[in-house]
Design a protein that fits this description.
This protein has 813 residues and is an alpha/beta fold. The chain is 47% helix and 15% strand. The protein folds into 2 domains: 62-76 and 112-463 and 800-807, Rossmann fold, CATH 3.40.50.2000; 468-793, Glycogen Phosphorylase B (Rossmann fold, 3-Layer(aba) Sandwich). The structure holds ligand 26W. Ligand 26W is lined by residues 117-120, 123, 268, 270-272, 274, 319, 357-358, 363, 435, 464, 654-658, 676.
Length: 813
């Protein structure tokens, strides 16, 4: 392992050089942004030699590597991470001190690249961190959105979106390479031609854009490895000939340019509900095609035999967003490289694997045949042929079972002809995986059972994970130090070593230290939230946290019902305020801008907060805090301070969850349903250290089958009735009953996610939580056991699973 630069003086010198020669300012005249940039450049400089060497080696060794194709990377801030990876944290801190600079101010200057919506994007970021740390040959490909996930603000308690201008002041972490741009074509038509007696197809596109790569360093932790994340930016081609605009005048030409550059302008903020927008398909093809071309052009040696491509690369499809890469690789192999169709298909089927991140039918992407035909006419032909041959094979196996053929067809007919991207990915993928045991099982048996029967062994599970570097070492330094004192420092790259903490759970001294860490984290959170939002966090309160995208299936509403139930108990006089366990409820959640119900729920949370927080009868024992704009940076502050982690989705809906893992690893206890990775968390930590409630997935199914009538639940449960009536009465909306009426009537007459069905069980379990919290020492013991037993959820382990079972890409040291 390389050693870190040893001298603070040397670091100061480089910092000042960067400040002078790259920023063009003297220290005395520099502002915080100059200083942040100069520090970032200095860190970069230390990583540069390794990065160049690793790029050279990836090509020279021709070892098999992973191309991770993902439309989203929710990276979080880079400065701290890169300092940590390169062991420069202490030296940089001292060097800044020597210059009279508080490094904290520079950290705060960085705007995180929010190039993702939530779990899927953050998972991609954890994975590339692990791949670098494990020295696996790999590259992440994605899109350099000019605007990432919107900045959330609240106006009168309601969400208002602001553009995320993360590039406003530039980014010191990116390296644009316009000289390595790829040209990406769209539209037009296809024609056949005679190529020395062989009939071939030629695509004659109507317009094209340049894809300019922006490289980012992905440093491994303490191993001197630096991998690459390559994000594509759309730029108009010089000869931007857009026939659809078909005009010579200047204004039109500029408009055409804007049209091209729109492709990488903004991240779609829809999470789980694809809108089927043309621009989105353009984004998907844009980055998929650029990535494949980049790999084939730059990573293969001149004389490479494409038949051996599967020995060289696996393209991992992060959900269906990059699935258009499948027909693209076929097009390149058949039309451009002039391989036989069958040979190309054999290669392609070994070069892709597909991860499915959902169980929600509406989240499975489909694209209308008309749209694909218009935008990518050659790809549509290729998809037809893939489907034709696939259905031929299905017929051979299953006979002319037309029902089954229709069900399995890559092209669906209803309500209109469209391409089912998950099916295409399943047919093309060497493996298909879900992201937690339960979801993988449901994917195989309920969502794609015909495919499982047709392709035995293709379906597998790889349970998600999170990087312990960012989510323990950086986010929770005092816990990290405590762990290292107890079990040594090796846990950061071998998280199963946390097991060594188990005996410490029985040590009163250690428990006291652990509790002190938690209390310290609450005080640190108090400081952050006060500065950020004017909120106060009382460290004598239990901190009850629900942070994740706002979605009905995740059931933030159930959490609200619990809070209102507690509040109603106090204000109705049935419960003494002094008898209530003091709790602070923290929410963090963005709603997709077009998701009306989700936005209404945000409004309700804020409304309940402002009533509960200001009612003297509550005596300050219940507090609801909803800091706006939950992001990776805030997650790093909130999660280490939490006592209770809310993972309360309807069973069978949350594919995995990854926040659940971060909380457990930071010593929060979980209240959760038997859903996603909660199941595995509970198995590992044990029933005594997990608050389980609610129906299981089969029970959910059974209740639907029997007929679910939420209004009946309401009628038969007095506590629930009082709770809902209080919301319906206008108490949280200045007496205006209409504001939250849609929420109430939806709960009473539809309740797709069975909030009411699980309410009683949730409330009962929350009582157990309150009781358990009374015994602080026992609670801390459980919290320690949560940390000790969840080392499984390192993204290093996820990577090992992918490598062993799907990719077959061993580390190259
Ligand atoms: C707009 C189309 C669309 C469709 C699906 C956008 C985004 C999605 C994603 C699949 C949503 C997502 O982030 N899924 C989450 O993936 C995480 C990582 O595997 C899981 O932990 C979450 O349970 C899952 O909801």
């Amino acid at each position: 392992m390389p050693s870190p630069p040893s001298s603070v003086d040397g670091f100061v010198r480089e910092f000042l050089l960067n400040l002078n020669f790259d920023r063009g300012v003297a220290l005395s005249a520099s502002n915080v942004n100059d200083r942040y940039f100069a520090l970032a450049y200095t860190v970069r400089d230390y990583l540069m030699a390794r990065w160049l060497e690793d790029q050279r080696r990836q090509k020279a060794t021709q070892a098999k590597g992973v191309c991770y194709l993902s439309a989203e990377y929710l990276l979080g801030r880079q400065l701290d991470n890169n300092l940590l990876a390169s062991r420069l944290t202490d030296i940089a801190t001292e060097a800044m001190e020597a210059c009279g600079i508080d490094i904290e101010d520079l950290r705060a200057q960085e705007i995180e690249p929010g190039l993702g919506n939530g779990g899927l994007g953050r998972l991609a970021a954890c994975f590339i961190d692990s791949l670098a740390t494990m020295s696996v040959p790999s590259i992440g490909y994605g899109i350099r959105y000019e605007y990432g996930i919107f900045r959330q603000t609240f106006v009168d308690g309601q969400q208002v979106e602001q553009p995320d201008t993360w590039l406003e002041l530039g980014s010191p972490w990116e390296f644009p390479h316009p000289e390595s741009a790829q040209t990406i074509a769209f539209g037009g038509h296809t024609e056949t031609y005679d190529d020395e007696g062989v009939e071939r197809v030629r695509w004659v596109p109507a317009w094209n854009v340049k894809a300019v790569p922006y490289n980012y360093m992905v440093p491994g932790y303490h191993n001197g490895r630096v991998n690459t994340l390559r994000l594509w930016r759309a730029v108009a081609t010089n000869a931007f000939d857009l026939r659809i605009f078909n005009s010579g005048d200047y204004e039109e030409a500029v408009r055409a340019q804007t049209f091209a550059e729109n492709i990488s302008k903004v991240l779609y903020p829809e999470d789980s509900t694809p809108q089927g927008k043309e621009l989105r398909l353009q984004q998907q093809y844009f980055f998929s095609a650029a990535s494949i071309a980049d790999f084939l052009d730059n990573m293969l040696s001149e004389d490479y035999d494409l038949h051996a491509l599967p020995d060289r690369v696996i393209f991992q499809l992060n959900d269906t967003h990059p699935v258009i890469a499948v027909p693209e690789l076929m097009r390149v192999l058949v039309d451009e490289k002039k391989l036989e169709w069958d040979a190309a298909w054999t290669i392609t089927r070994q070069c892709f694997a597909y991860t499915c991140h959902t169980l929600m039918p509406e989240a499975l992407e489909v694209w209308s045949v008309d749209l694909i035909e218009r935008l990518l006419p050659r790809h549509m032909q290729i998809i037809y042929r893939i489907n034709e041959e696939f259905l031929g094979e299905v017929r051979e196996t299953f006979g002319d079972d037309e029902m089954r053929i229709r069900n399995m067809s890559i092209i669906g007919e209803h309500p209109s002809r469209s391409v089912r991207m998950a099916y295409l990915a399943t047919v093309a993928g060497a493996k298909v995986n879900g992201v937690a045991e339960l979801q993988s099982e449901l994917l195989r048996t309920k969502v794609l059972p015909d495919f499982d029967e047709f392709y035995p062994g293709k379906f597998t599970n790889v349970t998600n994970g999170v990087t312990p570097r960012r989510f323990i070492r950086l986010a929770n330094p005092s816990l990290a130090d405590l762990i290292s004192e107890a079990v040594g420092a090796g846990w950061t790259v071998d998280l199963e070593r946390l097991r060594g903490l188990e005996p410490f759970a029985e040590d009163p001294e250690f428990r006291a230290q652990f509790a002190a860490v938690k209390a310290g984290n609450k005080r640190a959170l108090d400081k952050v939230l006060f500065q950020r939002d004017g909120f106060r966090v009382d460290d004598t309160h239990m901190l009850d946290v629900m942070v994740k995208r706002l979605h009905e299936y995740k059931r933030q509403l159930l959490k609200v019902l619990h809070i209102v139930t507690e509040y109603e108990g106090i204000v109705s006089g049935r419960v003494e305020a002094s008898a209530v366990q003091p709790r602070t409820f923290i929410f963090g959640a963005k709603a997709a801008p077009g998701y009306a119900m989700a936005k209404r729920i945000i409004h309700l949370i804020n409304a309940v907060g402002s009533v509960v927080n200001n009612d003297p009868r509550v005596e300050g024992r219940l507090k609801v805090l909803f800091p706006p704009n939950y992001n990776v940076t805030l997650a790093e502050r909130v999660i280490p301070a939490a006592d209770l982690s809310e993972q309360i989705s309807l069973a069978g809906k949350e594919a995995s969850g990854t926040g659940n893992m971060k909380f457990a690893l930071n010593g929060a206890l979980t209240i959760g349903t038997d859903d996603g990775a909660n199941v595995e968390i509970r198995e590992l930590v044990g029933d005594d250290n997990f608050f389980l409630f609610g129906m299981s997935e089969p029970e959910v199914e059974a209740l639907w089958a029997k007929g679910y009538r939420p209004a009946d639940v309401y009628q038969s449960d007095e506590t629930l009735r009082r709770t809902i009536d209080l919301i319906a009465s206008g108490t949280f909306s200045d007496g205006d009953r209409s504001v939250f009426e849609p929420i109430v009537s939806n709960l009473l007459y539809e309740d797709r996610f069975m909030v009411l069905a699980d309410y009683a069980s949730y409330i009962a379990e929350q009582k157990k939580v309150d009781a358990a919290y009374q015994d602080q020492d026992a609670w801390t013991r459980s919290a320690i056991l949560n940390v000790a037993r969840t080392g499984f959820f390192s993204s290093d382990r996820s990577m090992r699973d992918y490598i062993d079972r799907i990719w077959h890409t061993p580390p190259v040291y």
